[in-house]
Amino acid sequence: MATHPANRIPGKQPRWSQRFEGVLHPFIVRFNASIRFDFTLLQEDLDGSVAHGRMLAACGVITAAEAGQIVDGLETIRREAAAGTFRPGVDTEDIHFAVERRLIELVGDVGKKLHTGRSRNDQVGTDLRLWLRGRIDELEILLRRYGQTLLRLAEDHVDTMIPGYTHLQRAQPLSLAHHLLAYVEMTQRDRQRLAQVRQRVNVSPLGAAALAGTPVPIDRRRTAAALGFADIYRNSLDAVSDRDFAVEFLAAASLMMVHLSRLSEEVILWASQEFAFVSLTDRCATGSSLMPQKKNPDVPELVRGKTGRVFGHLQALLTVMKGLPLAYNKDLQEDKEGLFDAVQTTRDCLEAMIILLEEGLRFQPRRLAEAVGSDFANATDVADYLVARGVPFREAYGLVGGLVKACLQEGVLLQDVPLERWQQVHPAFAEDIFTVLQPRQVVAARLSEGGTGFVRVREALEQAKTAFAD
Ligand code: ARG
């Protein structure tokens, strides 16, 4: 009598089939098992099995009554899991065997018919895709909430100005909303990317069986439709060995993390005493165990730090895949933990950033106003002023550079320079140069498409609000 792991006597070591005489080394039982982490796939495994069982009946492979018993048994397992009583141990090896074994315990020999015309290879691929599709849909909701949070903040700060930087050197002042809207754009691309990945996740490998298909008269399109897949894999070998969809997801998640990490880095800088552009509220900041004056930006630091794990999972899976001959190899069991962790990490970081933006930080308008009014970020506008009066740009650039140098030596700003001196630099300067020097004017003037001019920013805000509406 075969003692297949799905059909074993409790308390006894399983044997695969009558082909096996010995039993696995106890350490290897644990080494081989994935149940510790693939229990995560329980709901999807049940969904896949329900669809497969019903399809077998529809194709006349088993009777409708048998399918009914199988489906009832699977739904009983779902209830047991909800009640916390279905807790398969390491001896069941993986979630597929655990479910099959429990099914046979519950419904008897008819349960042994469920695995007809499929293999764990197409089964695990189906489960993983169903699971990831569900998580992608949740992530999309979270990304939208994150974008909406950025948008609310941007809306409050169209008229707040912040120094803009290149090379982390003061460059030109910006509307703070424009700065935040840059992150909204990244989020928009993240959503698009996720939607594209979802299309490739949403393809059914079920019915590819072990690698070559099956002589059982199954209907792959029926299970695919029942499970909401948009298509089926055309090639059975590709179906059971492809993990491109998981790699693509990890790449998309890595980029989401890059975006969260960059904003985190800015918040960390802004919260420093050197910048002091934001203050941290007590909702998200922690103290030091030693230094009583400290308030630390732990949340953005953790987001920045966790980014590395997601990159690591991407690298790990690429490495798992690169040397695999067709078709299924047990290496593929290594696809799960990194993927699960990447989903959890990305989700947690989005959630944490939403909280940080909503209640963890306050922009400091006085300090920001002071910052934008105390540098040479208006120098380009002076050059543009001359250009508008017929001076070639390169010449204007040189003249203004000379004036900036002199101001720096004297410790004054451009707005402190008297009109007579401006006119010594170039006779085209008139009284209105002082308006041009105002940071508000510097920002307002940048009306080119995609620029920080307040009018453009308000337009962009409205467009983004539509794109992120529920
Ligand atoms: N636990 C396995 C995995 O996660 C399921 C597929 C096993 N297939 C096999 N032929 N050993 O990949």
UniProtKB/TrEMBL annotation:
CDD domains: Argininosuccinate_lyase. PROSITE patterns: FUMARATE_LYASES (PS00163). The keyword Amino-acid biosynthesis applies. It is found in: Cytoplasm. Keywords: Amino-acid biosynthesis, Arginine biosynthesis, Cytoplasm, Lyase. Residues 376-444 form the Argininosuccinate lyase C-terminal domain. Residues 20-312 form the Fumarate lyase N-terminal domain. Its EC number is 4.3.2.1. NCBIfam families: argH. Belongs to the lyase 1 family. Argininosuccinate lyase subfamily. This is Argininosuccinate lyase. It comes from Candidatus Synechococcus spongiarum LMB bulk15M. The gene is argH.
